[in-house]
Write a structure and sequence with these properties.
The chain has nine helices and four strands; from the N terminus they run H-H-H-H-H-H-H-H-E-E-E-E-H. The protein is mainly alpha-helical.
Length: 295
């Protein structure tokens, strides 16, 4: 930021002249290369001159204006130069080539040595692995023998302890028996079963019957009504243990008719109901018949 600023007067006409001179030089450069090409010189010679660029335009212009003999001599000298340069490069690179070849040989030898060592180690490890596998086989056989001997030893030991084992089992059984009797208070009969279990069974049964007594009574009444005999088709009825005669549609039967109705629960008869067929019920039935017949 503290650089000194310098101003310069630039001549515009000079700038224009410089650009035109550059264009003229480029045209001359291209024209000289084309002229040399027409003389039949090699393409390699033309390519090298072109690679030198516009900066060598004056030298290329001089070559292009050489007489034919001079141009041929110049091209021959150029070829000789390249041949000498190639020869020198070959000589200079020979040592580098030898050094490179030696390095390659050294690397190859080192690699072969490493591979040989790796191969030897691999073979050694494989052999060691085989030995371990063989040991495992021996151990497996040894394990079979060891396991067999161990089990046989246990069996033999148990055989020698038959008496103590039987006594111990007997003691365990007696302990279990005493514990059960003590817990259930079994003294022929068991107090627990008698006081805490048995006595609640009939009480529970009675409570269940009591809760459902109304349903039983209702069902019994319906069954009794369905069991009322059709006296219009009966000639004789059982009245208080005696036989009486009567007709239903003329004169109501005097006396009491007993009807027995069984009460069945789950396929078992649990009670019987005895109901009196009184005159009032007969009269109600007679009224239903009269209304049906339109009387």
């Amino acid at each position: 930021m503290f650089d000194e600023v310098k101003t310069e007067n630039v001549d515009a006409s000079k700038l224009l002249k410089n650009l035109k001179d550059q264009n003229a030089q480029m045209k001359q450069f291209q024209s000289d290369l084309e002229r040399l090409k027409q003389t039949g010189v090699s393409k390699e010679f033309i390519d090298e001159l072109r690679a030198m660029g516009v900066g060598a335009a004056d030298e290329i212009h001089a070559i292009a204006n050489m007489p034919k003999d001079m141009l041929n001599e110049y091209v021959a000298a150029w070829k000789e130069k390249h041949a000498l340069a190639k020869q020198e490069a070959t000589i200079q690179l020979e040592d580098a080539k030898k050094q490179m070849e030696q390095k390659i040989k050294d690397l190859t030898a080192a690699a072969n040595k490493e591979l040989a060592n790796a191969k030897a180690q691999w073979i050694s490890q494989i052999k060691s692995f085989n030995d371990e596998v063989k040991k495992l086989g021996d151990f497996r056989n040894s394990g079979k023998v060891l396991g067999k001997d161990t089990v046989q030893g246990i069996i033999n030991g148990l055989k020698t302890m038959t008496g103590p084992l039987a006594n111990a089992a007997k003691a365990i059984a007696q302990t279990i028996e005493k514990t059960i009797k003590s817990t259930l208070k079994i003294k022929s009969p068991s107090r627990v079963m008698s006081d805490e279990v048995g006595k609640w069974i009939p009480l529970g049964l009675a409570e269940g019957i009591q809760r459902n007594i109304h349903a039983v009574m209702s069902a019994t009444n319906r069954m009794a009504q369905l069991a009322i005999p059709d006296v219009t088709s009966m000639n004789r009825l059982s009245v208080a243990g005696d036989s009486v005669a009567g007709t239903y549609n003329s004169t109501p039967i005097q006396g009491v008719v007993h009807v027995e109705v069984p009460v069945v629960l789950d396929g078992r008869e649990i009670a019987r109901g005895s109901y009196r067929y009184v005159t009032e019920l007969q009269q109600k039935e007679q009224l239903k018949i009269s209304r049906f017949e339109g009387r």
